[in-house]
Write a structure and sequence with these properties.
Keywords: Coiled coil. By secondary structure, the protein is mainly α. The chain has one domain. Helix content is 97%, strand content 0%. The protein is rod-shaped, with a radius of gyration of 55 Å.
Length: 193
Amino acid sequence: MNKLLEFGRKALFYARVLSGYEERRIRSFRLQLERHVKQVQERKAAINKVPEQMILSEVRNMVEEMQALNKKLEETEAAVEEYFKPLDNEAEIIMKMQLEGEERTSQMMMNALEEQAALQTAKAKQNASISQAVSSESNPGEAEIMMKIGSEEEEKTLKEMMKAMQEQVLLSKDYTENTESVNSISTSTTTTK
């Protein structure tokens, strides 16, 4: 009986092979295995790509955050510059006024020094002419008196020049203080806005 069953199985197998059924079955099994292998490879590739995608997404997020931060920094910098622009303009005006005041005082002092030098040269010439006149008269007592009078006049003119210089300096200081007080008032009104 076993031999009969075995013969029947072999006969069925030959019939299937000859009819092409077994070949189709083998092909379908092979295709099924290939599909399964392909799916497994795709899953494996997807699993390998996941860390790369996570890293790339984190890098993108960091880049976006940095760009947003840079944009905020630029906006705040522009706002700060806009806020301090009037103060910078007022400070520049004050500096110009102070420089003009200093230039005026230095110019006044230079003029006063030039006047003093001119007076000193005039006095020196006067003293020289007095000493020549006195020496021609050959009276030493009169020469001393004339020299004292010349030196007293020189001291008097020097005192007058110093007084004039002090008045000019005081006037220029008053002028700069007045302009500074006006600027401080305008500054206080602009900062309260």
